Hints:
Blueprint: H1 37-63, H2 65-87, H3 91-108, H4 122-140
Amino acid sequence: MSGDRNGRTAASSGKAATGGPAAQNVDLPFGFGGFGAGRTAALLVLFILGAVVATCGALVQGGWFPGGLLLALVGAAGLFYGGARLARGRAGAVAPAAGWVLAVILLTASRPEGDFLFGAGAGSYLFLLGGMAVAVMCATFWLPVQPPTSTARLGK
């Protein structure tokens, strides 16, 4: 392998040994990480947990109005934020949020018998809109991990 004037080899400078461009790595400002089998399974579990938290929250917010609503929203926020921390990326917050939204949409539909889970009160609307707002906040406010600090002294 030949090196250039800075001492880099052809492979490390981004060009192939034949002189043509090699496959370049693009550093995006956001990252979803690799989607291996383990990560996909973890995101699937988070999706299912999102649906479970939505169902439990729908039952709790209607049963104990002021406290149950707060408990349901805090539980959803904990799952969304915890999923983002666990998966170390936005996909960890998006997966449970998608499960939460899907379950809530399915629970708002009335059945042929006339049964429904959500009433037409302020608590139900606050749960629906508040949960969606919490999901968006947890998915967009994800902060990446700080890069490791160098032991080298600056300026020397």
